[in-house]
Amino acid sequence: MSNLRLINETNVSSFVNTVNITDIFSADFDIYKIVVSDTEPSGVPSTDVIALYTRFINASGSVITASNYDRANLVMKSENVYDEDKLANTSFLYARDYIGNYTSSGSVTYIFNPYSSSSYTFMLGQGSGGYDTANNRYRGNKQIGVLKQTASMTGINLYSQNSSYSFKALIRTYGLRVDS
Amino acid sequence: MAGQLIQVDTETISSPTSSLYLSGITTDDVYMVTVNDLKVTTDNTTCYVRVGNSGTADSSANYDYATKTLYSAGSFLNQSNTNQTEWDALNNLDSLAGSNANAIYYLYNWASSSEYSFITQEEATMLYITALYGKQGGGVHTVTQSNSEIHFVMSSSTIASGTFTLYKVV
After folding, report:
1. Of A126, A38, A145, A135, nearest in space to A76 by CA
2. Which of A146, A149, A174 to substitute to test the interface with B, most B CBs within 10 Å?
3. Residues of chain A contacting residue B36, judged by C-beta atoms under 8 Å apart
4. Does the complex come out with an ipTM higher than 0.85?
5. What is the pLDDT of residues A32-52, one digit of tens each?
6. Helix, strand, coil proportions of chain B in percent (round to 5)?
7. A178, B3: Cβ pair inside 8 Å?
8. pTM of the entire structure?
9. What is the count of structural domains for chain B?
10. Smallest Cβ distance to B100: which of A70, A113, A177?
11. What is the Cα–Cα distance from B61 to A122, expressed in whole angstroms?
């Protein structure tokens, strides 16, 4: 049996600007793999590419909005120089997904220790997508991040940088099983 | 189904140790290694990575690497070198409570005696000044030898805790 275990599959089949995926992190796993695919945008003009943001959700079901996130995100652009997006003590992480006016994007992210009450929650990942047909603006990105809280997290929130723009997506969460 | 992970070896450190290794790389499959919740005893110490066999790390000067380091407190860094005695990894770690280091490595051609051994690295750690820091890139061990082990060796001091796991990707 594979040590990569599917925990949750959330198909966001109607356009939304935010989605909560809860009860995916537990004491059963320490490392999680989140795969986002089939992302479709709605409302994004042909001249724009926007990011999806992400936050963690604690055991009480609350989205963590405190300024306890650090991130370092290399944004690779097809039409321009790369961005080094780096910030400490901010209130969100970038998701690895971008949406333009053209379907679609995808990403793979690993989350470390979200359920631990003694260690910070780290992530690393990469994504490909976001494309505007007016300017041929493509976005690839590679990111690391941390939530500097020693509290148990049980889920993630994925939301649009601009609430006027919405998205669909298929979000699969896997746990990496360690057999001692 | 392709892309499945089969656990080959794991080590959970619960008392301080200066080194450890994972073994069982015996086929031409790709292998994946996870480092989870690595905590160090002493601030500003580094955990290097080497190939090995029979419980012994290869410390000959045959390691090349090229990485892009993502960093929250300064410019991102291009770091490269040739003919080193280890791969540059998990650098200058923070020992404050809460801080820890995590990584995903993929290993290519390690079992082959006629190919160089390659590695890709993705790391998310806390630098000793308590800033987010992580190398992304890879390296090569430029010797045509079979390697059945991956070794983690501290530059000084010890690993306080952490879980290291080797999977075969099938």
Report:
1. A126
2. A146
3. 30-31, 112-113
4. yes
5. 999 999 888 888 888 778 788
6. 0, 60, 40
7. no
8. 0.96
9. 1
10. A113
11. 33
